[in-house]
Specification:
pyridoxal phosphate binding (chain B), two-stranded parallel sheet, L-aspartate:2-oxoglutarate aminotransferase activity (chain B), mitochondrion (chain B), homodimer, aminotransferase (chain B), 430 residues, alpha/beta, 13% strand
Chain lengths: 430, 401
């Protein structure tokens, strides 16, 4: 009897072990990603998702930074449509672009930023590669720094900066630090704080500067302030990385918006520069951008170019052709280029007008707060100065959606809804 | 003012370097058998008519250019996964996979490599077949993985070293990543037969390896999209939860538009959601969201019945021309009087052919005949036409007789 019991027990035990083995085997074979956590949703895009779910007819999406016309609709520039028709008529092939992208685009892209009389371009001492819009450009730059700027690991961002800057540099292996920039007391530029911080940055560190239309605050240094910053940065021997995502889109004038970049080059800073055509040409989803390294001379530029290609090839081999063809066509066809300049000025002017209307309407609502910063700030975004609790009320009570830091995309404001927006803001701030 | 004094001039990319040397050559009989882009029988780039039709359709819709989601165009992702896994796929029915749009095949592999580097912490090694596409190595290395190899190509037979592969694979440490070319192996053109795939699957399962399929030539290899995807689908049926990279550069001729997909097959739909969220967190600081144009074209073709059948005919046409050129090359070599065994040229499949030529012979071909190929003796059969196959056979015979 005991033997029988023992045998049964052992049999069951054996089969139990066998079952466990197969379960574990099957389980392990089929589940590689058990430890992968659900990640938090992207904060900026998360706003749009919440907006889409809202059923209030008065809802406003002041989250993601894409331009809208005065009817709240996406706007494809007519110069873009014309360029597309031109390109289609040529029946071009779809062969791979070179690793560094479309040559004509790179040339036009660099010229747009640096200006046609640029000494840098005449000396051929810069290299520009086509990138996957601004993000792709920044990431190539970050990877390049990580691999070749071995004297320093730190990248100094303004406080605050675009949210995506941080993971871009971090994932590339750099360390993030910050310098004072935005002054919440004035909703303006903390010039003394910035100079103070920048003057203490360790030599050879990388400093990121927003060329124009600072994202998210809309607060830009004035020319005299840029000059002082340039001097301190030169003294500290810092490596300057310009992020220019809004050339033309900020003031409506492409040369004025590129002034800081060009001034720094004249002052002898050999900068890194990221450009995007997402906003100023409305080419968002086509992913058009450029990354430029200004070097000591043409020979150095050749060496840097070869290493950029070695870096790019194992990321995506070569960049997408369509958007670059459009941008290149616009920039180098005189008629299309002037149409573009008018259209980008049109977008900038509408934004400026909405800023003015918002302040006018806030005053009409009876608000006694100082809203001057809404007019002083520039570009797509406005740091309203609203606190998180106020932002939450705006969303819950009025279906007005913005990011928690109180940033609104002015592009989402129209003459049709600016009154409602002013009313809502007044309600949560009075 | 000089930040980049220590930056060395890098070596030129070997594959693209061939094209650059070719361009400089003034010989009228010159042949570029280097880079792998399809050419028609006149040696010209070929834009598929289904692509032109899709473009016209898209243009007529006057769509906007708003950002795609981080994971890309939803319709594209769906069609892309269905193309690879098949419409009856249990994986798709269970919604236990996630497919994101990527910057063609390279972008897909790199996203996969980055994902492995971040989340496959149990093992750092990626095993590539020997040889593999040159770019695989820096893709995984730059992402932080370690590269190893398993025997694959047998230079003695110019075919598959099946015993060597099984032997090596059976010794790979558990949980390592193994890269498999789904069809039309690059650079050799040597593919395992179905029975061989089955044995490989069993050994891989036994070793508990994480399978990463690179499928850059679905439809382009045999001319049949289901036949070319057979290995991927078989492995899924056998319970391997694979990673999969797809490219539409060759099979739709969308090279410069950069259209591809990356798929992770998970245990269940919940895991797929978690993986998706982490893929987006990984992608956002690389390029934010993918380019729209090519994905719209591919999606339109795959989901418009008329365009889809045109596409299937055209991709079969490309595959058939390649197969024909292989046959003509061997016929012409025999006519030249070559006594070598060139059967492998016909047995190999896809864009590339590992001729078996040695570096010295390749150099003679380039210098004496202006025939350009990569040093490993790999030719792009797509660069061969009925007009130049005779010259090629003559040149090869001269350097091998």
């Amino acid at each position: 009897y005991n033997l029988l019991e023992l045998i049964s027990f052992l049999s069951f035990f054996f089969f139990f072990l066998l079952a466990c083995y197969f379960l574990c085997f099957r389980f392990f074979l089929s589940s590689w990603w058990t430890e992968v956590q659900m990640g938090p949703p992207d904060p900026i895009l998360g706003v749009t998702e919440a907006f889409k779910r809202d059923t209030n007819s008065k809802k406003m999406n002041l989250g993601v930074g894409a331009y809208r016309d005065d009817n709240g609709k996406p706007y494809v520039l007519s110069c873009v449509r014309k360029a597309e028709a031109l390109i289609a008529s040529k029946m071009l092939d779809k062969e791979y672009l070179p690793i560094g992208g479309l040559g004509d685009f790179n040339k036009a892209c660099a010229e747009l930023a640096l200006g046609p009389d640029s000494e840098v371009l005449k000396s051929k001492r810069s290299i520009t590669v086509q990138t996957i819009s601004g993000t792709g450009s920044l990431r190539i730059g970050a990877n390049f720094l990580s691999r070749f700027h071995t004297v320093a690991r730190d990248v100094y961002l303004p406080k605050p900066s675009w949210g995506n800057h941080t993971p871009i540099f971090r994932d590339a292996g750099m360390q993030l630090k910050a310098y004072r920039y935005y002054d919440p007391a004035t909703c303006g530029f903390d010039f003394t704080g910035a100079l103070d911080d920048v003057s203490k940055i360790p030599e050879h560190s990388v400093i990121m500067l927003h060329a124009c239309a600072h994202n998210p605050t809309g607060v830009d240094p004035r020319p005299e302030q840029w000059k002082e910053l340039s001097a301190v940065i030169k003294k500290r021997k810092l490596l300057v990385f310009f992020d220019m995502a809004y050339q033309g889109f900020a003031s409506g004038d492409i040369d004025r918006d590129a002034w800081a970049v060009r001034y720094f080059l004249e002052q002898g800073h050999n900068v890194l520069l990221s450009q995007s055509f997402a906003k100023n040409m409305g080419l968002y989803g086509e992913r058009v951008g450029g990354f430029t390294v200004v070097c000591a001379d043409a020979e150095e530029a050749k060496r840097v170019e070869s290493q950029l290609k070695i870096l790019i090839r194992p990321i995506y081999s070569n960049p997408p052709m369509n958007g670059a063809r459009i941008a290149s066509t616009i920039l180098s066809t005189p008629e299309l280029r002037s149409t573009w300049l008018e259209e980008v000025k049109g977008m900038a002017d509408r934004i400026i007008k909405m800023r003015e209307m918002l302040v006018t309407n806030l005053k009409k609502e009876g608000s006694t707060h100082n809203w001057q910063h809404v007019i002083d700030q520039i570009g797509m975004f406005c740091f309203t100065g609203l606190k998180p609790e106020q932002v939450e009320r705006l969303t819950k009570e009025f279906s007005v959606y913005m990011t928690k830091d109180g940033r609104i995309s002015v592009a989402g404001v129209t003459s049709g809804n600016v009154g409602y927006l002013a009313h809502a803001i007044h309600q949560v701030t009075k």
